[in-house]
């Protein structure tokens, strides 16, 4: 599954980009300006681009899938590792050619890199007209207007409240079956390696009613899976009156006798609310933080068949000293106990994936071995694995030397990747000879004779098409597998 890992979700060569709404003849006839958006980074950025598209549509812009025909180009950027930023800088160089041909073209850099670099980006990249941080998207039409007068336009204010709860996203590059719903923004965790708290600001949760409404609308529109998104979904928290009423119902004590009659809507509550919309609406979520995921969440997952049996639980390291330097606030034992809890409550079949960083400051060979042994213990189904990249301004950049040589980081990363490949294969082999319920997302990448979808554990399953189509649930008997894919036939 495409996830938080740094990946280009709507890169120019991405097939999904081809599914972006094209400008209709009507829109062209009435002279609407055309907006092209390209998204980099995590699912949250992808989801934000859909908010931006909605804001711009409301301001009278049409969206287009081809950069060449655009009047306004936005790059929604990622700053998580240095190479994520390099990718954007290379793209800007490429866009220079467009601007030479069409000098009135407006180029905006949005998202995390914009927030990190602020006006410095204008100095470093001549082609950029607009710099807009993740909380400035309501302001995009005004920023474009300002840029059209030939001035540079900047809004990098971070908010403590903005959740865009009232904006109905325009689903870009959608398969019409699966969608993301942002349930919170920002992060208060301050892991020492991470720029996200600086680029996305303070953590805030979105009104649960607006989340449930969005999920209901998606279901009514034919979507069959929603992924609830946040940097740390387990710290989701919302105080509202209906939760107070519910708390009163639960409690024997009269509301007046209680010190705080309001009990918040927790992530477990929210999951249950979304899962109750319809048994055919699958629910996924990402990301869980090992320090915060509760038994309550695990029991809620066990209670609802339509909450997928899959948890993304980033580890970052398997060594307690490194975890402490990373400021992750848990140690190896805590992480392993969480794995045990998941297996105890949800069974051995629950899919678990992780994030791992190789070569963090001062990591020794032995400590690297601890990451490998943690992976062996957890038997992860999947992993997103990275070499440490120092980010300016972070705690780690200020306090610790980035002293593991590049080639050592790379070698350790390769060992982590190789082990994960073995573990993924082993975990996939468990499904051989078993029937999986698969939600069809579209044709397989290789051939239109085959369909592709995912099972409960988030694994890609490919099978001959038959009479089935996108959005169907089908039962597939798994007959073959690789470390990446399950292959089977409909039963
Ligand atoms: N909120 C999520 C992570 C979001 S960032 C969590 O806490 O788990 C996605 C992943 O990028 C992280 O889990 C981490 O593995 C990786 N990452 C973040 N900063 C990094 C850095 N400076 N160098 C390398 N990888 C990094
Ligand atoms: Fe970054 Fe840590 Fe927040 Fe995840 S929890 S976004 S790694 S600071
Ligand atoms: Fe996501 Fe990259 Fe920002 S991972 S939160 S887009 S820094």
TrEMBL record:
It comes from Fibrella rubiginis. InterPro entries: Elp3/MiaA/NifB-like_rSAM, Methylthiotransferase, Methylthiotransferase_CS, Methylthiotransferase_N, Methylthiotransferase_N_sf, MiaB_methiolase, rSAM, rSAM_horseshoe. Residues 429-491 form the TRAM domain. Monomer. This is tRNA-2-methylthio-N(6)-dimethylallyladenosine synthase. [4Fe-4S] cluster 2 binds at residues 187, 191, 194. HAMAP family: tRNA_metthiotr_MiaB. Residues 173-426 form the Radical SAM core domain. [4Fe-4S] cluster 1 binds at residues 42, 78, 112. Binds 2 [4Fe-4S] clusters. One cluster is coordinated with 3 cysteines and an exchangeable S-adenosyl-L-methionine. GO terms for molecular function: 4 iron, 4 sulfur cluster binding; metal ion binding; tRNA-2-methylthio-N(6)-dimethylallyladenosine(37) synthase activity. One of its GO terms (cellular component) is cytosol. Its cofactor is [4Fe-4S] cluster. It catalyses: N(6)-dimethylallyladenosine(37) in tRNA + (sulfur carrier)-SH + AH2 + 2 S-adenosyl-L-methionine = 2-methylsulfanyl-N(6)-dimethylallyladenosine(37) in tRNA + (sulfur carrier)-H + 5'-deoxyadenosine + L-methionine + A + S-adenosyl-L-homocysteine + 2 H(+). The keyword Transmembrane does not apply. Residues 33-149 form the MTTase N-terminal domain. Its EC number is 2.8.4.3. It is found in: Cytoplasm. It is an enzyme of class 2 (transferase). Belongs to the methylthiotransferase family. MiaB subfamily. Keywords: 4Fe-4S, Cytoplasm, Iron, Iron-sulfur, Metal-binding, S-adenosyl-L-methionine, Transferase, tRNA processing. It holds the Pfam family TRAM. The keyword tRNA processing applies. NCBIfam families: miaB-methiolase, MiaB/RimO family radical SAM methylthiotransferase. Catalyzes the methylthiolation of N6-(dimethylallyl)adenosine (i(6)A), leading to the formation of 2-methylthio-N6-(dimethylallyl)adenosine (ms(2)i(6)A) at position 37 in tRNAs that read codons beginning with uridine.
């Amino acid at each position: 599954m495409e996830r938080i890992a740094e990946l280009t979700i709507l890169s120019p060569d991405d097939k999904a980009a081809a599914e972006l709404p094209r400008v209709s003849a009507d829109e062209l006839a009435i002279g609407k300006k055309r907006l092209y958006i390209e998204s980099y980074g995590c699912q949250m950025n992808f989801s934000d681009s859909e908010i931006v598209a909605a804001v711009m549509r409301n301001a009278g812009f049409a969206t287009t899938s081809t950069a060449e025909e655009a009047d306004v180009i936005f790059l929604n950027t990622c700053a998580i590792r240095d190479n994520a930023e390099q990718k954007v800088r290379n793209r800007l160089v490429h866009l220079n050619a467009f601007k030479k041909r069409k000098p009135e073209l407006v180029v905006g850099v949005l998202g995390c890199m914009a927030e990190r670099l602020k006006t410095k980006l204008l100095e470093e990249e001549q082609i950029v007209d607009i710099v807009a941080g993740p909380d400035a998207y309501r302001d995009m039409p005004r920023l474009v207007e300002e840029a059209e007068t030939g001035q540079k336009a900047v809004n990098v204010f971070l908010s403590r409240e903005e959740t865009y709860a009232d904006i109905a996203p325009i689903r870009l590059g959608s398969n019409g079956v699966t969608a993301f719903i942002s349930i919170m923004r920002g992060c208060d965790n301050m892991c020492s390696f991470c720029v996200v708290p600086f680029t996305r600001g303070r953590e805030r949760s979105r009104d649960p009613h607006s989340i449930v409404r969005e999920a209901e609308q998606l279901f009514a529109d034919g979507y069959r899976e929603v992924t609830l998104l946040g940097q740390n979904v387990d710290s989701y928290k919302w105080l509202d009156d209906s939760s107070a009423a519910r708390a009163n119902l639960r409690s024997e004590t009269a509301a007046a006798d209680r010190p705080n009659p309001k009990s918040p809507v927790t992530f477990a509550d929210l999951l249950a609310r979304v899962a109750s919309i319809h048994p055919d609406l699958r629910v996924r979520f990402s990301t869980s933080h090992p320090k915060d995921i509760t038994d309550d969440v695990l029991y809620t997952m066990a209670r609802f068949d339509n909450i997928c049996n899959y948890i993304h639980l980033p580890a970052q390291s398997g060594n307690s000293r490194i975890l402490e330097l990373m400021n992750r606030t848990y140690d190896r034992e805590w992480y392993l106990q969480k794995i045990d809890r998941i297996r105890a409550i949800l069974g051995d079949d629950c899919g678990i994936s992780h994030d791992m960083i190789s070569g963090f400051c001062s990591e020794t060979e032995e400590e690297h071995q601890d990451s490998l042994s943690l992976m062996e213990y957890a038997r992860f189904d999947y992993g997103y694995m990275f070499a440490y990249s120092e980010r300016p301004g972070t705690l780690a950049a200020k306090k610790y030397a980035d002293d593991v040589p590049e080639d050592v980081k790379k070698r350790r990363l390769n060992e982590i990747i190789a082990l994960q490949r073995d573990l993924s294969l082993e975990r996939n082999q468990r499904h051989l000879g078993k029937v999986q319920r698969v939600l069809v997302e579209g044709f397989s990448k290789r051939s239109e004779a085959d369909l592709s979808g995912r099972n409960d554990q988030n694994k890609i399953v490919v099978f001959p098409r038959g009479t089935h189509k996108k959005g169907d649930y089908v039962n597939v008997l798994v007959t073959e597998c690789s470390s990446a894919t399950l292959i089977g036939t409909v039963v």
